[in-house]
Amino acid sequence: MWRDLAPVGRSATSGGYFRQPWASAETELRSWFAEECAARGFTVETDGIGNQVAWWSPESASGPGVLTGSHLDSVLDGGAYDGPLGVASALAAIDVLRDRGFAPDRPVGIGVFVEEEGSRFGRACLGSRLVTGATTWAEARELRDRDGVFLGDAVADAGLDPSAGLLSLERVGTFVELHVEQGRDLVDRDLAVGLASEIWPHGRWRFDFAGQANHAGTTRMEDRHDPMLTYAMTALAASKQARLAGQRATFGRISVEPNGTNAVPSLVTAWLDARASSDDALASLVGEIGRQAGDRAGRDGTALTVTAESVSGSVAFDPELAARLALLGDWPIIPTQAGHDAGILSDAGIPTAMVFVRNPTGISHSPDEHADTADCLAGVEALADVLAELAGP
Fold first, then answer.
1. For 32-40, what is the mean pLDDT?
2. How far apart, in whole angstroms, are the C-alpha atoms of residue 251 and residue 272?
């Protein structure tokens, strides 16, 4: 399966992946998933926006099911493992259970949620948010990508029909997501597998710095209203405040108008990704960054507008479930600073757990993202044990 996935959406230049939702690579991946499920005798249900689910439900199975899976989209120039590892491992874990002769008492499903990364339309975990009702279709369809394409049009262009409805989670009693670890906790512990305790609260805020366009050569420095200077100070302030508080703050995307080499900009738009250990700490961090940015804007003669675009509160996974599963392999229970569909389903009231697979460098959202084959196979065995525990007698 990994060999089949490897070339899809991969850049020949960087080696990274461009698997944007409702575009050609992601469509090919959805077809790949359907083919893998068909080869195992599963029927795939695809909803009106591209979310998919397939169930292993032999005659012995009844009642609320155990859903596993992840996502297949990527960030821009992303890694191979973030998302697809959870989908391929879910398929492989069911293969392992079948080889063991395991007959589930409850159905076991594999789900794939669209636009988990939020890299195209700016709303992380959008597929699972829509399925759980955390976001409405009326709101989502008006989102635009960088080229100005409405999400509703992108979905239709991909051959999907939102009026066909969304996946139902009524059949789901428990959700388990396997994911490559996006950090070094397991590396430091010298362990291949761990479980999640919580997801830090996090979000994305758009900072619009407005100034006055002018000539780069003839305009004296003291006569400028340069929004780039306000942004530059804000980026440095964000880094300093996050370091002092032990939190996370990143400006990873900016847009400049008119974007000319010999012109003072009229507008700089920058997106802040901020994460913290608690909801209060996140609010404090973003508030302080905004305050310092506003103070600098006053000195630069520029104007600042801050807009929250996507904010997720803290998620504490079911502690009893995590403790129960940890006993299966003496696995550690660790926090994560990355957002996941598992967090959205947990917030919707579904008992949820996560299985992490060691990432030897800790690098993620990058072509350098990696997991060793031996660790991936350990993750498959761990997921099989978890599914057997949850779907067994």
1. 97
2. 5
